[in-house]
Each structure stands twice: as C-alpha cells, then as structure tokens.
C-alpha cells in the first residue's frame, strides 16, 4: 500500500476557524463533512509548499503566519493509508473566493464540535485547543467510517461507545477524554466490595484515588470502577477492572447486579470543568477479601480501607472532612439491596 501524503490547515480569525463544508462532490470520502483546508502533495513539494498552494487554490488566501502542529496517520481498513501534516494559521492576506470543493464558512471555535465531523477530527481539535506540543496521532477507521483505534505519541488511547438517549450504543465511537469534554453519554461499571461484620453491620471497601489522577485526585471512591471500552460488555469489563485495580480475581457469576444510575455532573479534567454524562452499571462483590493482600494499581489507587456503610452514607451527605466523589443515590441503592437480601 502506497501512503498518501496530505496537508490540512485550520485558519483562525476572531476566535473562529475557516471550515470547508464538503457538499459539492458526489463521490467524496468527506461528503457532507466539515473539514479544514488542504490536499495532496504534488511532485516534490515540501509540507509547507503543499500547505500554501492548497490554501491559495481553495480559498484565495495567501498565508503569512502558520504553525506545524502535528502528524496524523490515517488508516481506513486495508484500502487507505495517509500521512497528514496538520497546521493552524493566524496570518493571511487576500479575499476569500468561492471554492469548488464545498462551501467556506467562518465558524466560532465553540461551535465547531457541533458540526458533522469525523470522530478523530474532534480528537485533534481537542489537542489543538489544549495547545498540545507537536504530536503524532494515529487514527484507524473501519470500512463504515467508525473509529476503531487511536494512539497519541505511540500510546494507545481509550475508546468508548457513545450511547443514545435510550442507553444503547449509537454506532458512534469516541476517545475517552474527548467524550468527557463534550459531555457525551457513555457507560461505566461500578463494583462495590462488601462484607458483613460479626455485629451484623455492612462494610464497604473504598479506594482512595491516586493523587496523579486527572479527575478527583486523592478522593475516596467506589471499590473499583471503570469505563466500558468500545465493543466490550458490562460483566467482562467489571471482572477486568476488579483485577486491574485491586488484583481481585472474580468470576462473572460472583458479581451481583444491583441496577444502574444515570448521572451528569461537571468534573475537573486537566484543570478544566468538563461535563461527565454516564450510565453506571452497579455490582456487588462479596468474596473473601483481605485488604492487606490486594495488589493495587498504583496509577489508579493510592490505598483502600473498610468503612461502615451507614457512616459512609452519613459522611457523603455533609462531612466536609471526608473528600469523596461518591454518589449518595448509589450508596442508598447498595444499602437497600443488602437489606433486602438479609
């Protein structure tokens, strides 16, 4: 397979991007999508030469100031391999002319994510917005144009199925942090490790989140929790998260389903408040757990501790000295489930 070499540029003015709505060509892989300005290398062109020529041809503008922001590798099934030089530009001369590729429009940056974009485009828009240093991004799509793999600077990124309002997969797949930033509905699993004391009270094992976590660092949280990766199912995800975070090897039959919650909250990610919209599938695990012998995932969990369930409920409802990111509604569900089983 001979790779295609292309450039793509997002021209900036007055907090807007110049976007190209690809509506003029029938047989166009980008048909009806909104993209930046760019095209294929010609002859022995350098990336900069290709960039300036394509911008002039498609818009009538002559670039005077631009930045090379990243290299994007596209793979589409076994039919397409493309290396794309990604630029932004904030200086130009000339007047915009009509483009034979589609309709040109200045779009406020805050509204760009609402356009019909490729899933990977939303991801690299996020990286541009964060002023990410020069990056290498790989995006792999299937034959239907669904994002199936993403890697940033050689590190695999987590992909999530985006859910419709009915809670079922919509067919859209998005990278995790981008899904959080956009408040897209996705699924998680919550596993509560519990035990009954000799006095008949219920205790729950809480984890203190690593202080290096991108959200709620150092807070007390559910025993174990995680996202359901794109294409994965609830129970396998729950079993995997218990093993990865706490070192607990559980059989799927040992996880007792409690129900689910749907919650939308604002959470800090990388110093910004992003909406977190998720459906959480809740399980209870009552296996024999010695907290001193657990194998904790250092990047996720700082420590674990048993707490009386009633105390936890009380503290989450008004104890400022108990830093936590627990959901009182979910704790009440756990309490009710355990009481009904007695």
Question: How would you portray this structure in words?
Answer:
The chain has about 350 residues and is of the alpha+beta class. The protein is built from 6 helices and 19 strands. The strands form 3 sheets. Strands 1, 2, 3, 4, 5, 6, 7, 8, 9 and 10 form a 10-stranded mixed beta sheet that branches. Strands 13, 14, 15, 16, 17, 18 and 19 form a 7-stranded mixed beta sheet that branches. α5 runs antiparallel to α6 (about 330-340). The protein starts with a strand and ends with a helix.
State Rg. 24 Å
**Class based on secondary structure composition and strand pairing:** alpha+beta
**Which residues form runs of ≥5 with pLDDT under 50?**
none
Roughly what percent helix? 10-25%
Q: What would the average pLDDT be, to the nearest integer?
A: 93
Helical region count?
6
SSE order:
EEEEHEEEHEEEEEHEEEEHEEEHH
How many distinct beta strands? 19
Gross geometry:
elongated
Q: Cα distance, first to last residue?
A: 64 Å
Strand-residue proportion: 35-45%
Largest sheet: number of strands, sense, barrel closure: 10 strands, mixed
């Amino acid at each position: 397979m001979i790779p295609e070499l292309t450039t793509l540029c997002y021209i900036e003015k007055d907090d807007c991007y110049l976007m190209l709505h690809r509506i003029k060509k029938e047989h166009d892989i980008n048909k009806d999508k909104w993209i930046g300005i760019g095209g294929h290398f010609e002859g022995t062109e350098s990336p900069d030469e290709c960039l300036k020529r394509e911008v002039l041809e498609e818009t009538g503008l002559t670039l005077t100031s631009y930045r090379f922001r990243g290299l994007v590798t596209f793979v589409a099934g076994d039919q397409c391999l493309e290396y794309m030089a990604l630029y932004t530009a904030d200086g130009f001369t000339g007047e915009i002319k009509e483009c034979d590729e589609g309709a040109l429009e200045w779009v406020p940056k805050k509204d760009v994510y609402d356009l019909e974009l490729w899933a990977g485009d939303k991801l690299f828009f996020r990286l541009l917005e964060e002023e990410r240093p020069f990056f290498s991004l790989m995006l792999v799509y299937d034959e239907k144009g669904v994002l199936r793999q993403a890697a940033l600077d050689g590190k695999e990124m987590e992909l999530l199925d985006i859910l419709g309002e009915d809670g079922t997969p919509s067919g859209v797949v998005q990278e995790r942090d981008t899904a959080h930033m956009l408040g897209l509905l996705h699924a998680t699993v919550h596993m509560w490790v519990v035990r009954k004391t000799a006095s008949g009270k219920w205790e729950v094992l809480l984890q203190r989140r690593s202080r290096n976590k991108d959200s709620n660092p150092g807070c007390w949280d559910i025993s174990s929790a995680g996202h359901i990766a794109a294409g994965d199912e609830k129970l396998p995800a729950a079993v995997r998260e218990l093993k990865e975070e706490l070192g607990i090897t559980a059989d799927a039959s040992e996880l007792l389903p409690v129900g689910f919650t749907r919650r939308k909250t604002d959470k800090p990610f990388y110093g910004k408040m992003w909406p977190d919209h998720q459906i959480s599938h809740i399980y209870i695990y009552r296996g024999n757990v010695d907290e001193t012998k657990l194998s904790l995932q250092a990047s996720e969990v700082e420590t674990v501790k048993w707490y009386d369930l009633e105390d936890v409920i009380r503290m989450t409802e008004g104890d400022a000295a108990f830093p936590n990111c627990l959901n009182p509604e979910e704790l009440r569900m756990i309490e009710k489930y355990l009481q009904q089983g007695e």
